[in-house]
Amino acid sequence: IKYYFSLFSILIVRAAFTGEQDFCESNECNGDFKRKNTFYSNVKHEGEIPLALSHTLLDVLPLDEVDGNFIRVVKRCVFSECQPTPLKAPLTLAAVSLDVLCNVLDVNESVIQNEEFLQCVSGGKLFAGSVPLSHRYGGHQFGYWAGQLGDGRAHLLGEYTNGKGERWELQLKGSGKTPYSRSGDGRAVIRSSVREFLCSEAMHFLGIPTSRALSLVVSEEPVWRDQFYDGNVIQERGAVVLRLAKSWFRIGSLEILTKAGEFDVLRTLLDFVIKEHCRSIATNDPDKYVAFFFREVNETAHLISQWMSVGFAHGVCNTDNFSLLSVTIDYGPFAFMESYDPNFVPNTSDDEGRYNIGYQANVGLFNLQKLLEALQPLLTPDQLSQSQQILKEYPQIYQQRFHELFKAKLGLLGHEAEDSYLIAFFLKLMEDSRADFTMTLRQLSEVSLSQLENGSVPQSMWALSLLSSHEYFAHWVQLYSARLSRQHGDSDEARQHRMQRVNPRYVLRNWMAESAIRKAEKDDFSEVALLQQILMKPFVEQEAAERAGYSSKAPLWAQHLRVSCSS
């Protein structure tokens, strides 16, 4: 049992598309909901967009002295200036996050009808004040140093500080070649762009630190991809996502400077990150880099434990995909697992299973080790020793945070010595029975304690019903019931309400995303819109979501669905 708890495993996403039928048969996915969302493509008006960007980055950080988008080895800078390559018309504004538009960027939703908006969010024109940049970084990919990587198809447009004082960096993804494109074409396709748009917003409303997505624009521009690296190259269509983050710097941003021996640039970048994003660290503190590393260790442990609490497998936890602000970025072959499996690998490109879900916390430790190596030139021997000691505390920080999250998911109050055993026992039951992670916990929050104790779990609670068939489930219920009985002043109704606030009913399962993608590739964005709406309230039961089957068992066609790094 303790072995399974130490793995902190979670769920299995089934992968493979085998059917061509319509996947969501409800009105929400077809007629009614589709008609409600056709306004995105009916852009009519023209005029300036009331959004002006700035670039404090350019005031502090060195810029590439070489101009142009041609591919090259870049040295002694943090950014290269390069222009986006507009997508070929006709363009369709397939989706917009009104929450980002109105509540982050302070722009009225009427701007959606503006032709200028469509051009700005697709790379055809620039927002006022924009100076497009591509970021130079490196990274360890699948455990090995990969050298210069960088923004191979992304352009940082600028920064916006909103009415709440929040500073956001706006970036286009899929907007054309940069000096860092290597052998790539600088484009992104519809399937990967739909996934990034939906999951960025879904994670935000789950309460997990993440980048955001403002818009999704699709085109008729042909893009060629070998999706599963098996020699089967097919024609797809180009798309662009405008995404936002407080910062797009990642561990690899520092690594490449240390590897190149550019320690002065390293210090400049790190000082900028601390000043702009780590306000609790005094800029004149002689131990500020140790304090920064302490923050990174804590926040990385917290972020990965949050991933695990919702069954999220990132898929490519390379150091170039790990944010220095410990937010989730770069949504590729991710998955929300379905059947519980500590060895679940969402990415078919991950042949060795390095990034399986049960290993994510260990990968976090590896990435922090690489971060410390990048910081080492700026540390005194004593500071390095302190930082190494901080790193040793990572497993305990992670375990404590995971423990707290899972206690809440089980509705436990206070602390008892056997809580870890109770959690581990539950996870082991789920693994043995291959119960659905999300719905088992959700249905546990909806079932009454008396139903559990009487062994009368309704068959409609399909995930919990499967778990209840385990030979040791009744014994676990006895332990669970006894633990709850010692929560004085608590009630079963209060337990249910607490648990329903932290156990989502809806997550972006791969089959749901795939269904939306297949329709989007046929210019039907109704299910993208439906999922976007549903996932804004993942903890609330919604009639439209129930009709669409989003809390039901995965359909048969989804049993062999696959995702890869190809995008």
Automatic annotation (TrEMBL):
<dbReference type="InterPro" id="IPR003846">
    <property type="entry name" value="SelO"/>
</dbReference>
<keyword id="KW-0732">Signal</keyword>
<dbReference type="Pfam" id="PF02696">
    <property type="entry name" value="SelO"/>
</dbReference>
<keyword id="KW-0548">Nucleotidyltransferase</keyword>
<keyword id="KW-0460">Magnesium</keyword>
<dbReference type="GO" id="GO:0046872">
    <property type="term" value="F:metal ion binding"/>
</dbReference>
<keyword id="KW-0547">Nucleotide-binding</keyword>
<dbReference type="GO" id="GO:0005524">
    <property type="term" value="F:ATP binding"/>
</dbReference>
<dbReference type="GO" id="GO:0016779">
    <property type="term" value="F:nucleotidyltransferase activity"/>
</dbReference>
<protein>
    <recommendedName>
        <fullName>Selenoprotein O</fullName>
    </recommendedName>
</protein>
<comment type="similarity">
    <text>Belongs to the SELO family.</text>
</comment>
<keyword id="KW-0067">ATP-binding</keyword>
<keyword id="KW-0479">Metal-binding</keyword>
<keyword id="KW-0808">Transferase</keyword>
<feature type="signal peptide">
    <location>
        <begin position="1"/>
        <end position="15"/>
    </location>
</feature>
